[in-house]
Amino acid sequence: MIAEWAHLALILALPVAVMQALSALSPAGMLGWSGGFRQNIVRWSALFGAILTSLAFLGLVLAFISGDFSVKTTFEHSHSAKPLLYKISGTWGNHEGSILLWVLILAVFGGLLALRKGAASRQDLQVRALGVQALIVIAFLAFTIFTSNPFERLLPAPIEGRGLNPLLQDIGLALHPPLLYFGYVGFSITFALTVAALLRGEADQAWARMVRPWAMLAWTGLTAGIALGSWWAYYELGWGGFWAWDPVENLSFLPWLTGTALIHSLMVVEKSGALRVWTLFLGVVTFVLAILGTFVVRSGLLTSVHAFAVDPSRGVFILAILGLAVIAAFGLFVWRAPQFKPGGGFAPVSREGALVLNNLFLSTGAGVVLLGTFFPLITEAFGQPLTVGKPYFDATFLPFMVPLLLLMALGPFLPWRQARFAAGSGGESEAGPKRRRLRLRPARGLLTLLVVALGLAALVITLLSWQSQPRLTLTIALAMVLAGWLLGGGVLTLLQRVQASGSLAKVTLLGWAVSLAHAGLGIAVFGLIAGSAMVQERTVNLKPGDEAEVGHLTFRLEGVRETQVDPAAGRNYISAFADLAVLDRQGGVQMILSPERRFYPIRQDSTTEAAIHVTWLGDIFLAFNTQAPDGGFIVSLSWRPLIPWLYFGCFLMVVGGVCGVLGSWRRLARMSS
Amino acid sequence: MNTNFLRMAIFVLGAVAIVLVGTLLWFGLSSQRNPADFPTSTSIQPDFSAFGQGRALPGFEDFSDIAAVRAGVEGPFVVNFFASWCQPCRLEHPYLLEFGAANPGRLIGLAYRDDPINAATYLTTDGNPYAAVLADTDSLNALNFGLTGVPETYVFSADGNLLFRSPGPLIGALKSQFIDAWAAAQK
Amino acid sequence: MMTNQTRPILALLCLAVLTSLMTSFASAQTVNEIRAKALYTELRCVVCAGQAIAESNAELAQDMRAQVTVLIAANKSDAEIRDWFVTRYGDAVLMNPPLKPLTLALWFGPLLIFVLGAGITGLVMMRAQSRLVEKER
């Protein structure tokens, strides 16, 4: 019965969205409504639509929890023997449910935009943005209802479900899609506000201030989603890889790159009104890339380890949405762009100049990733299949990131408009007379930092040059210096803000945001370099009692044990553990780590659960691959230095993002009250 | 006027780009393609240098000698990779039996990554369609033939040119393509 | 004064470099092991969805890895080993597509994108500069 009500709520949300779009976007005077009345109608339909969609989603979650297998989605993707947590996450662990989640986030964000009654000056912008948002909701609601209805029924109702893909039965993967969608769909609000600005022919500083919290919110969700996905790949796939340049990964990375550019260019618009045409372009592009990502994932267009159920008719539907969004938004953009007057000027060496370069490198990076991801499809269309993999992206994408990271540490110290170190107004809230002194210190600090960093690089190179790979050593050393430079820049940014405001407690949220995000990236880069270039790894065939050495570690296989299926304990799989002892120098057992292989009898499928021992210096990463024909056990043993710092860095970036959301939100509230 | 011209130019360029990209994505959707499949091509000729190397199946004649294998093969011939552990192989097995009986001496089997004992048991219980069969124990023949999975079947002309390859079991569309290719090879 | 500011950063930097030293000192792999590992990342596993053979447990990936070590032991160069696989599987077996007329756009596209972007950036910067000068006048 719940499923029926939920289905009804979902269907009702469609006319509500249509009404929202019509009343928001119809020409003024046609309906004979006053501005305030129109605003209220639009706002209330957005809120009502958000409630209806939430009810529909809640209904599906309840169907999963209660095991209502008369719902086809539940039957195919759930099982009564599954733990409660994974019953819930199973709701979005399949195509229909995940699309419903997409629509849910879309509608809820629309509701949030409608929640606050915009100030009179922003009323028209809010109404039109809600109208655009309603159009997106209509498109995806129609997609859900007509091609991927999660409430399709089965008669008679089966007694038991078909279980869940074992790879999805995992905490990382339970949280990864909602966060990723949070990011993807968050950019629908920046898109709606952008298109509304294009419709009005006006994108002023107040507009930028309004977009910023939403852009930051989406960026934060996307960052967390990507990091979580990478962490999942790291511990679950058993190879210790965290980024494979897989098409599906790339497609989540694309809106991240342009979204990061957007956050930075919005600052320029808010400060001086410059770069607005470019910023509007980014606002459109970022969400278009998010739809593109959804399209590729849901249609199975490109080769990916992330296999999803594929249905061409669904692909055609999203392709149509994508095409409409692109044609309408870019058509409007090209039509309106010349009307926007250029904003304030700035010198090449200035905060604005640095932000422009940031946009150049990020957009180039996005262009490269887009080219590499879709190139195999192009050559395949000409009958010449090709593979474009990790080595290509490493070689073409990373070079553009080096200047970006170099600039990143410097950017926050440059004054707006003009670059003379002794002049101009700098941070968010600086006192006048102190400026001159404050300006000098970070500059000298950075120079010192550079000298020291280069000295350390020289040291690392000499110390490591006895190794057989001088080129690799050099690259690692330089990359480490770059990461140190970046981290230093982030910390110095914070110190500068502390000095400017007088105490740590007085640093603005936006000051925290930039420091944490930049320092976090620096820390993540340390982990990234070490975790990809400095890994010590061996795959060996061991019999119980055998020892193997990897780097500074010695392992001994103590034995292999098995556990059986135990529904009571929430275990619907058979496990085999390889107990590996980590030995100290005297041969004593330091600890025992047990990588696991799981076999799921219901799906006839197996997964690897790596055993990871996390330390400050790095991870001991063990995976149990398989049993060898000779009776031995094949395990891969590795030492992965600094990896925890990659995820700690990402965590700092997310915290920085949250600070950015709150800070820019507070500023918006202050400025508009 | 300048702005208008620029605007028109951008519109036209944009429209062309959208049509091109749209066509590409449409192509990606509409064709019967599975992007996960590794592209196979008959323009790549298998390497016969290790052909016939392998281990004999117990109870079966030992063909681990190139001359012996080739001697049994005059005219066009077919090479089929299979394994006793491979479920899709069982789908095409009845047809292979039929084909082997109708074309004596033309079908060569290579057991991929299979224990010779298991392969022998499989062929004894389910029937042996092959004129000559070996276990490709070190997988050298598999790599030399550009194998992308089992079962995979290769049709060669009398002079050893690859005419057709079936990257999956000989059932449905692949089976009828195989029959056509074999008919063409006879000519 | 200034050292007060930079000291924590210096400390952090030293820590990072030291950890990197400690972790990379640990063992020296043989040249052949390093070569094999690099080649594993350059060859595509033909039964997997776009993964390199370094990242797959599939039978064919194991076979391909074994073949790489056999070829290295037979004193083949990296280029010869790549060719060995290309003649059997075609260009698609390389994770890194070869430079040919077909892939010119792929390999020079990034540069082109950058040059184009840099040109626009230069233009934007020049205009912004002239607006600044105008305003200050």
Highlighted features:
heterotrimer, B: 187 residues, alpha/beta, Glutaredoxin, five-stranded mixed beta sheet, 6 helices, 5 strands, C: 137 residues, mainly alpha, Helicase, Ruva Protein, domain 3, 0% strand, elongated
Overview of the molecule:
The complex is a heterotrimer of chains A (673), B (187) and C (137). By secondary structure, chain A is α+β, with helices and mostly antiparallel strands. Chain A folds into four domains: 1-166; 170-425, no CATH class; 438-534 and 643-673, no CATH class; 536-641, no CATH class. Helix content of chain A is 62%, strand content 10%. In chain A, the strands form two sheets. In chain A, strands 2, 3, 4, 5, 6 and 7 form a six-stranded antiparallel beta sheet that branches. In chain A, a hairpin with a 2-residue loop joins strand 2 (547-550) and strand 3. In chain A, helix 1 packs across helix 6 and helix 10 (276-299) packs antiparallel against helix 11 (312-336). Helices cover 44% and strands 14% of the residues of chain B. Chain B has six helices and five strands. A five-stranded mixed beta sheet of chain B has the order 3-2-1-4-5. In chain B, strand 2, helix 4 and strand 3 (132-136) form a beta-alpha-beta unit. The radius of gyration of chain B is 23 Å and the shape is elongated. The model of chain B has no long low-confidence stretch (mean pLDDT 81). Chain B folds into two domains: 1-33; 66-186, Glutaredoxin (3-Layer(aba) Sandwich). By secondary structure, chain C is mostly helical. Chain C folds into two domains: 29-98, Orthogonal Bundle (Helicase, Ruva Protein, domain 3); 99-137. Helix content of chain C is 70%, strand content 0%. Chain C has helices at residues 2-25, 31-42, 59-73, 78-89, 104-136. Chain C is elongated, with a radius of gyration of 25 Å.
